[in-house]
Amino acid sequence: MLPVFTAAEMRALDARAIRDLGIPGSRLMDNAGSAAAASITRHLAPIRGKSVVIACGKGNNGGDGFVVARRLRARGAVVRVFLVAGRAEVRGDAADALARWRGRVEEIRSARDLSVLARALDRADGVVDALLGTGLTDGARGLVAASIDLINRTCGREGGRSGVPVFAVDLPSGLSADHGTLLGPTIAASRTLTFAGLKRSLLLHPAAARAGAVEIADIGVAAEETRRGVATWQLEAADARACFPPRERDAHKGRFGHLLIVAGSLGKTGAAVLAGRAALRAGVGLCTIAAPASQQPIVAAQAPEYMTEALPETAARSLAREAKERVLALARRMDAVALGPGLSLDPETQDLARALILEVERPMVVDADALSALAGHLDLLARAAGPRALTPHPGEMARMLAVGIDAVQADRLEITRAVSREHRVALALKGAGTVIGGPDGHVAINPTGNPGMAKGGSGDVLTGIVGALLARGVEPEAALRGGCYVHGLAGDLAAREHGEIAMIAGDIIEQLPAALHALTAAGA
Prior knowledge:
single chain; 20 helices
């Protein structure tokens, strides 16, 4: 996993590098700017003769920009440096970097000076944004905000000259390092060259959409040092690959677990079917779907590879309370349980769901309507007889916590961290950049997936994948990490084949073989 920093964690890393590792702040800045310049050189190759405009602020981010300017000029680029401040306002390591630039600096001190910047942008082959860095806590204002708007209108993804790339140094100016919300005017970068590790806002929407492609630049601090004290991470392929090891030649189905899926109701049998098919594609040895008696023939007819069980049902043809003992008996014979897809919100069925969450001894993934049963009853999780993994979307999370969806989305990382830690569960808050948390307070962000997966049934597919991993003995938090990564990867392959608009949940299942092959082949 890759570390994901807050602004405070990044300041702490810089302080440790200076204090404990003996790396002066000026050298850290020089390393950062040099790494950014090397990347820009690659992307603007051949760099010799290219016109590059560098917009700098008065803080350390501007200092990084002065280093970039010096390095690009040494490679033959035609560099113009604009400072949205006066030279006398630049302090500390940034002032040292400015002194080493030894070139012209065009100060932007009034609205009239912006016209000079505008003309330079019109002739630029590339633009470097070094206005504001990780210390920002409020929206950009004044001439900095005006400069951001001018760059966006003129270049990059929002401007009329869309072929002119905008390279953001560390963060697109205007973003907070810590949150996904937009504070005000923000650079729409083509590429962000971030230092030492990822920043939260580069992974959280809508802020992440301003970053373009993200590249991590080395600042000369050892990898093990950058990982110290970090509580937020981004998943990598290797994290998921560990959940899908190669099979031994003498393998048999009993080695890969038996998953019980408790799901379905009148009109919602498709959810049970999707979960079952996904579980089988994800490698579970055996899968049984337990559904209301009247719906069991419908579920059984959809695929020959899983088994089915008919359970007592309510008048509304959802699972009845009296199904509990039968489910408990089935679960004792199996390795894991998936509860919730298409279960219904019938009050009696909701009572059953709560009883099963509390009493089933096997690892369980809880999703969909079973999550709604937890609203007002989250105390059950701490008393549950076995490990629990929850997979809510923002609406389900909001219902469980009795808050608005906006409150959930406002700080997805911290709400996932708090709920996972308080209730001692593994939890995946689904959405753009699914956030996965565990009882130890660490959270991980999943980088795979796309908006085409915002379709009914996609969550049921994830439930089946996670259930398959639990049945094979993978710990709940690892099962969520591996399951979410592969689920998103299959979704990305489905979008490539069908497009984001046309793809459906079944397409994700059909792409699971290709996703697993790509994942395991890459590690071979």
